[in-house]
Amino acid sequence: SLQEVPLEHEIFQCVYPLKEKPQIPSIGGxxxxxxxxxxxxxxxxxxxxxxxxxxxxxxxMMFICHNTDLGDGxxxxxxxxxYFREFAVKKSYPLGINIVTYAMTH
Length: 106
Known about the structure:
Blueprint: E1 3-4, E2 49-54, E3 60-66, H1 70-75, H2 81-105
Antiparallel strand pairs: 1-2, 2-3
């Protein structure tokens, strides 16, 4: 079953120690006005959720990112220098590197 992954989990700390669960807006969103969440109708859309399914040894087998567009930080970095500096460099890349490192070492 899905479980919320706490910020203290190794996946958020292994290479880049993150101080928050990053919320990355879609590049097409209203992020220049400080809105980092995406509009939706599924309850609390302002809070990023990172959930996982664990194996019997407690290792993450599936990592799910909700209310955050982590992929846009990797895909759209060439579209806007401000978006790149604020979201790709500070949030998307560090978490992506942590995810890959965790997957390769567990």
